[in-house]
Amino acid sequence: MTRENVLPERDTISNLQLYERACGQNCCEHGVCHQNYQTNEPICTCSRGYTGQNCNTEFAADGKLEDIMMDTAMSMDSEPDLFSSQTISQATATSSWSRDERSQKEIFNWAMEVMSNGQYPTLKSQASIKFEELQYSTKMYYIRQARSAFEIVCENIAPSQGLELMTQVCHSMKLKTSESKQKDALTETIISAYNKAEDHTTKVQVLSLIVEKYSKSELLSFIQGLTIYKIDAARKYAATHGPGQYVTPPKITRIRLPKQKIHHFIEFISSPCYLQVVGFGSRHLKLSSGLVVKVPKVIRTMIASRLINAYTNYCKENSIIPPCRATQFKIIKACAASQLKSLHGLDNYISDGMDSIDTLKKVVSNLGTNGMITSKVDDLNESLDTLKLHLKNEFQNHLSSESDCNEHCIHLALSEKGCEHVHTTTCQPCSRMYQIKDELQNLMTSNFPDINSKEKEEFEHDISVSTEKIWAWRDHLIRTVNQDSCKKDLLQNLQSHEVLIIADWAMNYIPQTFRETQSEWFGKQGISWHMICALVRKPQSENDSNDEDDKNYDIYSMVHIVEEQKQGWHIVSQIFSSAFKMLKSIHPHLRDVYIRSDNAGCYHALPLLSYLWKFRNDLSLNVKQYNFSEAQSGKDLCDSRTGTCRLHMLNFINEGNDITNGMEMKQALESHGGIRNTYISVVTVASETQPVLYGQIKNLQISKFNNFSFEDEGMIAYKAYGIEGELVKATDMTRISNKLMIFDTNLTIGDPKQPEEKPASKKAIKQNSTFPCFEPDCLLVFKKEDQLITHISIGSWLCIEKEEKAVRFSPKVKEYLIVLFNVGEESGKKPSPYTVSKQMRNETDLQGDRIFSPSEWLSHQQIRSFFGNLCMKKQTVDKSKDKSVKLVKIEDNQEDDEDLQNVLSSLEANEHNTILSEIVSVLTV
């Protein structure tokens, strides 16, 4: 190997300069190449006496070795510093490649060779194991080598005084060893004191004496049970206070708050604007004295930090010194209250009714600021709060079909003919509800000089709309209780050969994958799936023969997964047919079936009822009745089973699987043995065509009726459960259902997989041998847990919605909304119904007068519905321009639009219910 020579300046070094070069392969392992600076002739010298004749570099010259070594020795004697620092550093800088290729032993031998002029015996090996484990002869060899090296090093450091320097070094090392032993003894004493210390502070204080003298690893090996945290704490203590310094702990004094301050703060956080009383339930407040106080359950409408900020600002404005924030947090924590949270999917009419009561309270508050007597304001607010709690918790529990109170009689409220029994009692909260409306309307006729005409119109409008919504809430509760009584009666009288099924479409399942990108996450199309829950009476066990009220049922679930198909009545009819067949295979003794569902368009439709009546005796089970509940009611059992299925599918996805279509959804629901008593089927649709009815039935508005019984004489339709039934003759039913077929060949339903038998859950340990119902309004208490589970599954409490009254918009309102809709379509920025609803109140003309009167103001629901109708009309116009659209003519040139008929029937039913409500209101006043 060769490289260029980098020559130093001539005036800074001697004439002879050494440069390292690697020897060739023929040279010994200790070979070093040198170069004469004056002649540029390379010379190779070796520690064992070989010359350039044995090297493979062609750099050596005969007769030069001795002269070079003599000159080198003279240079070392005359200028030792030059050789040791400058010369060697130059050589090191120019030949680092050579050093990197040599071992540590070779470097050591070379250095000792140079310092000793070849007198130091070559080190043959190095110790690779612990010195204590070496053999005696090997130890003595290394001691001799080290002694010789020390002597040479000392002689080079102090010429002619090397022996004396070596003696001083050995003496210094003995003193250091002795001092180290003394420190070890002190360390042992400190460690002993550390182990005897009991509290954490003392341990840290003692450890700070030695924590800076040892590393963490050494301290951990010295003291058993020591942690890194304690070492860091001791070092912080030593840096802050000094090693081992005693620090007097600060004296903590507690200031006792006066009772007046505590009471003032509690009164502030308990004000009605921050605290709402719940109509049911209670909590227990434990005092410091050990006394437990039972307090009503309340809801706090503001979080603790904001509540404290409000109190602090209040104290600043009134020059009050409040307690510290920590104390305020402790008081709030001690005052038991629930935190108000946002909710979703609430019943529309219950929510509107509660909002209406809040609106009336705001109107009363505004009237109070404009001159109304304070006592009158307090009385009205108290009456509104009482009314809210009454409708929310008590009213539906007092309703009965034959109540002595006219406000609580269901037959009086729902029947146009009234009831036959006499009403002898009245309900004070219900009577107060009618009085509030009259009082508020009379107040608006009073003279309030501070209220202008625009504000007065708003107040009158709010009073009118809010009272209507409260009345709607009341009527809604009456219909709820009446329709729920149908389910209760069916279950109480259910025979062993009968089955009750509850049907509902679950919310579309959004496809999911185990690892999902953003592009896959957006724009998904949900998968429709239908849930049917069947309740079958099972034989009573011998152990429960003495319990007369023990009603045991087997609950079966049938899930039908439908992809790319509209949720119409036709597919529902085929799902019912499949479910009947499945139940018959599970329990061959079943004969009759009762159906219950909500009043969605796919259920509450004349074609479906006609199909069930026509084939009531041809299906696997005989259809006896079809009973409808109102929206958001009667399907609690289906919702609970749907939640179980969703959790099962989520666990399937978390195991690394995907659910992107109906078959994968079925695979997920049947994984790990499936769900107990749940059967999964996939519905395949080859064509979307469905049969239609042959004409209509005159004077029959299907949306007005909620209960149907199928008889040989025809179909009996009831406006409400047990109230005013009308017979639809068999001839009419046969005529309109002439084109209906029992099975559709374009629709295939796959066979379900039999779920594995799983053991039922163990019974919980009985406490006081009673199991109360979890529902706050329910007062039932059960002896067994199974009875409670069955009671919850059946559901004795339900919440229903009410249909709203159809309102015709004025041409001015329609024109205003159409302009906003068209502008939104053109610009792409569609108006929000909430914004438009508020904007209508403030629209004025050039003279500053209102454009719309209060009677023309619309709610956001009405505006959303109107925009939806405009959007549907726009889509219909676009489709009519497409030549591929085929127009179907109905016989006798009559339109047979099912959706249109349902809408018209719904509007007529709304008007009918409104008239009925007005009659009831007049009778009950």
From TrEMBL:
<feature type="disulfide bond">
    <location>
        <begin position="46"/>
        <end position="55"/>
    </location>
</feature>
<feature type="domain" description="EGF-like">
    <location>
        <begin position="19"/>
        <end position="56"/>
    </location>
</feature>
<feature type="disulfide bond">
    <location>
        <begin position="27"/>
        <end position="44"/>
    </location>
</feature>
<feature type="disulfide bond">
    <location>
        <begin position="23"/>
        <end position="33"/>
    </location>
</feature>
<protein>
    <recommendedName>
        <fullName>EGF-like domain-containing protein</fullName>
    </recommendedName>
</protein>
<keyword id="KW-1015">Disulfide bond</keyword>
<dbReference type="InterPro" id="IPR000742">
    <property type="entry name" value="EGF"/>
</dbReference>
<keyword id="KW-0245">EGF-like domain</keyword>
